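Q: Hi! First time doing this. I have a protein sequence and I read that you can turn it into a structure. Is that right? Here it is:
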Amino acid sequence: MNLFTGKGSNNVDKSRYLFLASQVELLDAPKFLGELKYQFQPATLGVMVVKANGEKCDRCWNYSTYVGQSEKHALLCDRCDSIIENLITQGQVSQTEDGSYKPTS
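A: Yes, that's right. Below is the predicted 3D structure, encoded as structure tokens:
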């Protein structure tokens, strides 16, 4: 897997987990850095911080464009959606009428 492109066997952008961020993008040219409020640009690397695309996941608080797309778990990102679905399938968690989740006894 190439860590910086995020392309791997499960097609998840792994670099966002390394940087503890909701979204990571790598640019060929740092032409937009001059316009941003939060930036750092030494001679060999440019870093900028902007708001990530999407909505905040209720479980992990990462921003994702997937939030709102799941019919069963509309407030979750794709990662949390699959985790909660697995826990429900295993009988470890159930979904309440208000849409929240609770451990099964």
